[in-house]
Specification:
There is one protein chain. The protein contains 42 helices and two strands. The chain is mainly α. The radius of gyration is 36 Å and the shape is globular.
Length: 797
């Protein structure tokens, strides 16, 4: 995939990260019914001077071209005779007129008559129609359930024929496929070749992708001049993103001479097409008077347009404007609303920046707010709720926050109702959250709908999916991501990995960190998308830079093991430590090992122990096991401290296992640690305590616990002597392949202790133990064979 030029995404000083898929590729029609063209060959003007009688006579005689001309006549002449138009289109298609077949197929697809559409596209494709070859090939590549079975080789043949015939959409599709490697082997050179073919025909998308190829050097040699030339062609052909890039080039003087006026001019062209990043940049130009005369009203107009498309920077700009009454009447309600949206859409320091100017004179601001709030102004009440909720200039006080939000909520304010629902939900008071979420949702509040979705999901109710969809369709990124999780895991809906990835991608477009992480998981697993470890690493990196600790940990693992990226121990260490700082328990353990080992940088023993202890205190059992090992045996040059080692062993032994939770200790390991802790007490001369822990280990089905408890019963040590119970425990362990239990069970059968004497059973168990290398069992069998041989000799005498 042609990589985006990340260095060029600092438009007007604001970092604009590539969203979801940080690659630039030409965008051909998606193939939905809505995007299928009615006709790509027929003239849009009626035929002038048509001899209708002559054409009609030829058409009735079966002339396909005449039939098609009649279709055009009735379709385009303004007669409005739809029935005749369709009649002659069908007649022409049945007479093997390729254009007619293609147009009829497109018409049926828009009417959702999919089988009919596919039938006519296949016929037109067979007649060499390049548009039909492309569309039928597109659907053939993926297949359509119950309508068309996928046939990738045939699809590629058809689309290649279409591309060779000069159909731009086919050329772009092939370019994208050679970038992505989904249906063909990845080949950037061929991708660039097909992009060039469409670009030279004037296709703006292809021109933009070709420009990116020259910038990144993927498929062609890096060439700044070619990059700039193709970027300009795409921009001049109306490509909104290319216009934005060209504007930025003018803004910083990249390849072209720096020119703020031209930068603003190109941003304006892009902004007019609805590009939110360009709208934000143009707003900054008007705000600062850069390249255009300063105009606060126009700046706010463009900030608002970008903000309504969830551009976080623009949302924050509006929040500040309403807070300060800068260009708009001061309105704390609107200011808070836009600040919260900016925060939700990835502006990490939105709350801090919003409140910072007020903190300088918070006492006066606070008194003014209180007076307004007491008089019933909902904006002031909400502002006080926010202040107490976050502790801005006053100690955080959730109860006071609730009290002020409630006063605004009871006046019907949806924002306050939503905030109350969120506070109660985060406190774990789902039932208290419910009525306020319902009130907010009833007013169309997306976050209120999201809380309702979470409430019903928790109860396993399909209503949860319905409310999440409502919220997600309003653009709430958390709801989009959470809905994706439901489809990914099959939570209240059947598993649909592709639908999950669609929602993850939408949430990622708003910069939602967890969405990038989920996309990384999908690409790593090949679930909902083609498996692509490099793309997985890219997504983890996007999430990692946005502060997602799990993504930081996985990115550290990627660099450690070379998963989708070249191995880089220093990068791995950096991301492990980042995840550790974010409270990620596994990251803390890895950061600790890196510090202790000195594999990257100098040995830092104190830092290493601190990280591992933080992980262990957080409950990560592997960290607890590491501390037991470190202190009990003196690893990494650390002085032996058996007391500390046993402390951590006890934590492990006391932890209840859970095999269904990857964060919890598994049953097998819990059994091991309980048995080890029992051995400690036995060595301390406290067999009663030892028996308790051996029994806990045995209860988990662990063979060493069963064997050790059997030993105590056999000798009556810490428990009443019970040979039969000892044999029962030896058998449980022996059947799991535990060699010492097999040996002891063999002895019991040989001597008839706790079981009837049986030489055959004794030998059978001894053989099992001997096969595992048990020396006592091997010696027993040697002695037994020798005695048996001697007995036979005596019998002969």
């Amino acid at each position: 995939m042609i990589l985006s030029k990340i260095s060029q995404m600092f438009w007007c000083g604001a970092l604009v990260l590539a969203v979801c898929v940080p690659a630039v590729r030409a965008q051909e029609n998606t193939g939905t019914a809505e995007s299928v063209p009615a006709s790509e060959t027929a003239s849009s003007e009626p035929e002038a001077g048509i001899d209708l009688d002559a054409v009609l006579k030829a058409a009735e005689a079966g002339d396909a071209e005449a039939q098609f001309r009649l279709y055009l006549h009735y379709a385009l002449s303004g007669t409005g005779d739809e029935e005749k138009s369709l009649k002659w289109l069908i007649r022409a298609a049945e007479s093997e007129h390729a254009d007619a077949q293609n147009i009829l197929a497109a018409r049926y697809m828009r009417e959702h008559r999919i089988e009919d559409a596919l039938k006519w596209w296949e016929k037109a494709a067979g007649n060499g129609h390049p548009v039909a070859q492309f569309w039928f090939g597109r659907y053939l590549a993926t297949g359509i359930e119950d309508c068309l079975e996928a046939d990738v080789p045939r699809a590629l043949d058809l689309i290649s024929e279409s591309a060779i015939a000069g159909y731009e959409s086919a050329q772009i599709w092939l370019g994208n496929e050679y970038c992505d490697g989904e249906f063909v082997e990845q080949n950037y050179e061929l991708a660039a070749t097909w992009y060039r073919a469409a670009a030279e025909r004037g296709n703006a998308e292809a021109q933009f992708s070709l420009a990116q190829a020259y910038y990144t050097g993927l498929g062609v040699d890096k060439n700044a001049v070619e990059y700039s030339a193709w970027l300009r062609k795409a921009a001049e052909n109306g490509h909104a993103e290319a216009q934005g890039y060209l504007a930025y080039d003018y803004f910083i003087g990249n390849i072209v001479e720096q020119n703020y006026e031209k930068a603003a001019e190109w941003w304006a062209k892009s902004a007019e097409q609805g590009e939110p990043r360009a709208q934000h940049s143009l707003a900054q130009c008007y705000r600062d008077g850069t390249g255009v005369p300063a105009d606060k009203a126009k700046a706010l107009e463009w900030f608002r347009k970008a903000a309504e498309q969830n551009h976080a920077g623009a949302q924050m700009a509006l929040a500040v404007a309403y807070r300060d009454g800068d260009g708009v009447p001061a309105d704390m309600t609107e200011g808070l609303r836009w600040m919260i949206r900016a925060h939700v859409h990835g502006y990490e320091n939105a709350r801090e920046e919003f409140w910072a100017p007020l903190l300088n004179d918070m006492e006066a601001a606070f008194k003014n707010l209180e007076r307004a709030a007491e008089s019933g102004e909902t904006a002031a009440q909400k502002a006080l709720g926010e202040i107490y909720c976050l502790g801005r200039g006053v100690p955080a006080d959730e109860e006071k926050a609730i009290a002020w939000y409630r006063r605004a909520a009871e006046q019907g304010d949806a924002e306050a109702q939503k905030e109350l629902a969120i506070i109660y939900w985060n406190r774990g008071d789902a039932e208290d959250a419910l009525p306020w979420a319902q009130k907010a949702a009833a007013q169309g509040d997306g976050e209120g709908e999201c809380i309702l979705g979470l409430y019903y999901l928790k109860k396993g109710d399909i209503l949860g999916i319905e409310y999440l969809k409502k919220s997600a369709e309003q653009g709430e990124p958390f709801a989009q991501w959470r809905l994706g999780v439901c489809y990914y895991n099959g939570e209240c809906v059947p598993v649909d990995s592709e639908e999950a990835v669609r929602w993850f991608s939408l949430a990622a477009e708003s910069g939602f960190p967890d969405a990038f992480f989920s996309l990384g998981c999908a690409y790593e697993a090949g679930k909902g998308v083609e498996k692509d470890l490099a793309r997985a690493a890219e997504m983890y990196e996007q999430a990692a830079y946005r502060g997602n600790a799990e993504a930081q940990f996985r990115l550290g693992r990627c660099y450690a093991d070379g998963i989708g990226v070249a191995p880089d121990p220093e990068c791995s260490a950096k991301w492990y430590e980042k995840s550790a700082e974010g409270g990620h328990l596994r990251g803390q353990l890895q950061a600790g090992f890196i510090c202790l080992s000195g594999d990257v940088g100098p040995v830092r023993t104190e830092d290493g122990l601190e990280w591992i202890e933080r992980s262990a205190k957080g409950g990560w059992w592997l960290a607890q096991g590491a501390l037991f090992d470190i202190y009990y045996f003196g690893r990494y040059g650390i002085e032996v401290d058996k007391e500390k080692g046993i402390y951590w062993l006890r934590q492990l032994a006391e932890t209840e296992p859970d095999d269904n939770d990857s964060d919890k200790i598994p049953t097998e390991r819990a059994g091991v640690y309980r048995s080890m802790y029992g051995t400690f007490w036995e060595d301390e001369g406290k067999p009663e305590e030892a028996a308790k822990w051996f029994e806990k280990s045995a209860a988990l089905g662990h063979p060493s616990g069963q064997y050790d408890l059997g030993r105590l019963y056999f000798h009556g040590n810490g428990v009443p002597e019970d040979k039969a119970k000892a044999v029962e425990l030896f058998r449980l362990a022996a059947e799991q392949g535990y060699d010492r239990a097999q040996y002891n069970l063999g002895i019991c059968y040989f001597r008839g202790i706790g079981v009837p004497k049986s030489i055959d059973e004794a030998v059978r168990w001894m053989q099992k133990a001997a096969e595992q290398g048990d020396e006592k069992a091997q010696q027993f069998l040697k002695d037994f064979e020798a005695d048996s041989a001697k007995g036979k000799e005596n019998d002969k005498e």
